[in-house]
Amino acid sequence: MSRAGLVEFDDVHKYFGETHVLRGIDAAIDETEVVVVIGPSGSGKSTLLRCVNRLEEIQQGAVRIAGQSVTAPDADINRIRQRVGMVFQSFNLFPHMTARENITIGPRKVRDLSATEGEELASELLDRVGLTGQGDSYPNELSGGQQQRVAIARALAMEPEVMLFDEVTSALDPELVGDVLGVMRDLATDGMTMLVVTHEMEFAREVGDRIVLMADGTIVEQDEPERLFTNPRTERAKQFLQRLL
Amino acid sequence: MANTETTGTSTGLLMRDGLVRRVGEAVAIGFLVVVAGIVTIIVSTRVDFGLLETIFPRFVDAFVRVLGIVIAASVLSILLGMFIGLGRISTSPITSRITKGYVEFFRGTPLLFQLFVIYFGIPGLWGGAGFPIPNWEIPAAIIGLTLNHSAYVGEAIRGGIDAVPDGQMEGARSLGMSRVMALRQVVFPQALRNALAAIGNDQIILVKDTSLLTVIAVPELMTVFRDVNSTTFQPWTPLIWVCLFYLVITMSMSQLVNAAERRGDPGRDGSLSALAGMFSRRGGGGS
Ligand SMILES: Nc1ncnc2c1ncn2[C@@H]1O[C@H](COP(=O)(O)OP(=O)(O)OP(=O)(O)O)[C@@H](O)[C@H]1O
Ligand SMILES: [Mg+2]
After folding, report:
1. Which domains does chain A have, with CATH numbers?
2. What is the ipTM of this complex?
3. What is the architecture, at CATH level 2, of domain B47-282?
4. pTM
């Protein structure tokens, strides 16, 4: 089955050596849709996300963005990655650059943005993630929550069509989680297409348009948040949700 | 330092820490007294201050020569070492294996052997006479030190690159940077910072390795010592100059490394501008 979406997974299989980690993923994410991926540890959530911008190679099937194959051997991967923003659990900010430089390095180097355009873009994005005036700080001078918001701004600087979030609040102190989720909520409201792996069930319920529940490398069930949380159809989903509550 | 221990059961420990500290100080002071005593005795009985002055210009001569060789070999070995280090992590197995072989060879054979190959071996290819380069010992010295130490610098840089978390490369690639661009902008400046101490160590060894050059007829500090000693039979007087002149170079070098480390600390002045700037236009940190 193949639905047309902004991001499409078409029978995606991924192996790490002998381990079959993604076992035939079929899914599509529409424009402006926010899809939240949940599931037990090791079920393949991160791997699925990393296949979208080909940080992982797949062995079978295809991933497409706006109809264009990401996984074809001749795909221009650097160009495709510009259309996909990614935010990591461990931030992965560049420690030798200021917040502003972190944000502008992508556009400056990859899209030849001028220095002044870069300045403007950085200020605008820092405002957007609630870090007005913090542009000259280095990552080690910022709290985890601030760093993660700079990382979101850095990804947004490339003006991506879709954003990937892999447990972006898991490494944060509880009191810092809210600010980051707030930025993500705003993004969703502004119509960004998002694929989000998270353990924040409240966020999933409120912001997600659809929940995808993964287990053992397959999609067990997917549905609107309310329906999936209150009335799961499969035994596997029931088990998983039970353990959450 | 020991007094920062504040937990309840620490009184006994604190006393023992204090004791250890005082014993350590006593040993260190004892050592200093013995060494200072020996040096004083030697300087007052074995050093001829008239001779010290007469031979000074010859040591200055040698010192200037050594300094020139050190600067040339240092710059060249760091430059070449960067390419060796990058070659080691190349995705091309051809490049990574060839650079690995290079490192194995230059670390696996003695520097003196390498100097002999260059100083004697290469002119030997011309037969008896006819080797066109005059004063071959100086270029031979610079080439030998450069090749040898670029292997060590290369390993230091490879280690520095390995120490940069994978997430840095992934973060850069996910923005659409090519691998080469990500290396240059993101990984390499950090790798250089990581490798700085190891590179500094190696460059200090390079300074001391110039003492081997006496064997290939470079008139350096050890050569001057031997000349003076064989005519005056007063080893202690020239040894003073040898010691001081080596220390001048090695100690300035550690100062330089310390300064570079301070500059390169992320969080203040940005990346390691002096070295990284050659690879990255943003290297200076400021815009
Ligand atoms: N680089 C790798 N090499 C080998 N196996 C890997 C690698 N990365 C992931 N795996 C394996 O693939 C499976 C799926 O991993 P993945 O990280 O996608 O799970 P996840 O759902 O994100 O888990 P978590 O909730 O713990 O983050 C796991 O069994 C994991 O051990
Ligand atoms: Mg994961």
Report:
1. 7-93+161-244 (3.40.50.300)
2. 0.94
3. Orthogonal Bundle (1.10)
4. 0.87
